[in-house]
Amino acid sequence: MKSFFFLLFALSSLCYLQAVRSDDNIQGFEDIALGKIARSFRIEPLRFKNIEFGPKESLGAALFFDPILSGPRNISCAACHSRSLASGDGLSLAVGIGAEGVGKKREDQKDALVVARNTLPLFNRNRREFKSFFWDGRVQLGPLGNFESPLGQKLEGGFENLLAVASVFPLSVEDEMLGRPEETDVNSKYYHGALIKDDENDNNYQLTTLDVFLSIGKRIWGKQEEKVNKTQKEYRVMFSEAYPNVSIDELNISHVGNALSAYISAAFNLQPSPWDRYIDGDRAALSLEQKKGAILFYGKARCTVCHSGNEFSDFSFHGLSIPQQKIGKHGSYLDYGRAVATGLPEFRYMFRTPPLRNVEDTGPWGHNGIFKSVKEAIEHHVNPIPLLYKSQQIDPTEKMYVGNLIGYRSPILAEIAPLTSQEIDLLVKFLSSLSSLTVIDDNTATPMSVPSGDNSFITIK
Amino acid sequence: MIKGRYDYLSKLSLVIIAGCLLTIVCVEYLQPLIGKTLYSQQYQKLSIDCDNAMHNEVALREGTVPSSETPLLSKTAEIELMVCHEYDKTRKKMLVMGVTDNYLSYLTLLALETEKIPVSKMVEPHRMDHF
To answer: Which of B21, B45, B54, B79 to mutate to test the interface with A (most CBs of A within 10 A)?
Structure first.
């Protein structure tokens, strides 16, 4: 009897083992499928360039952290692009002129000016994939590789790359760094610091911007014939080290942009992520869930149609039907997005596909920071109705725009296959595999001080 | 002596008969039962996923989104279609374990009914245009 039960047990175990062994084969499916996906989409691992931190990068670092670039001298690039907050500010909407400090602290000042868009991170902005900048792509590469910007033909020559062009435009935006034109009180925190001339160029953005750029130059390095102050002296030395073949009177805004670009390129250059290591052959770099998420990303979730390439963006423009929340920068607090940058109404409510490297750390997400989690953002891609409904519950006027917003929703999103909540979780897991540290550490990327002496935006060291 | 040998042989033949019966029970009943228990749910899910994938692939191949994104969309649909390979593998595995074809058909129907998908929709993509 005993041997009978033993035999029964042995045979049952054999049957079970056979089943389990087959399950092992199923786990290998993810690697096989991802191999096919990598070949099909020609996915290459990210290979970082080692950028040396030379005089131009040091000059860029000084300019990046120095509030001298802002009209009222109370905000620098580093105020909203903090290394400790994934090169952003951690806020739904950026807080510009009138606030103090870095990152989330800026939200504490209730009378500060809110910039009606979410701060974009700066990772890998030097890479050639970046053919458009800002949510609306108002700085972009033209069809012949030329730089297109709101300045049109009036854009100064000498910019070395698109990032250099993009990096100077926040200086000319009133609520971001310039200050209010109507403010005449020189002691006001909104005062433009005489970067805007009251009597000319009224309502002409291009001429005003050129004037602002000229004034910023004079403020930083002074005029050749004038006596320069201590700050200007220090900047002159830094500029001559960064541009040894350029005399002071030859300097213009492009040299500021090129230095800022050099710094941003070096400071926010990313190391390969677990995903890159996986594509490079390290099969253990991703968890099983991340692998399953990757298959969804390149398959039924259709993410890769827009989030394509090595930076996970097509740098093109799509509508997501994101509620307006009365915080837009156009007309009656709407944000028409790409349409205003191009003047083409068919681009209403469309925004640039955000790149996804380090995306898990760069929240809140969306052009107006409406998404509090990556999962929430993905869910809205699949089904915009709950968020649109919720926004109407909060503000009944929101319903006036819903039809319009849905009308401009990208047709690509309609092709996303039905996704379960568990599958969306897997996508989130996959996106976490796109995270990596910068090549340069915080100490190297942060200056000890800035020439103006206002070191309030230097938060490390 | 002879009796002892007889007892031994009768015991041995009993064990062999019991073993054979047990094998038959295991192969014919136990193994299919294990197969059903382990894979029925997965098989039903895969049959729905594969059905969706096939429909999506056809739709996107025909360019339901007439734009420059169509080729990429089509490629993602091909990736999605890989789930049908998993469906086939699971089906074969269950067949090998002795689950009958009829039972698998029943599971598929059950899954489709649960999802309210008409059978015609499931069948249509399998039709070949020509030999």
So the answer is: B79
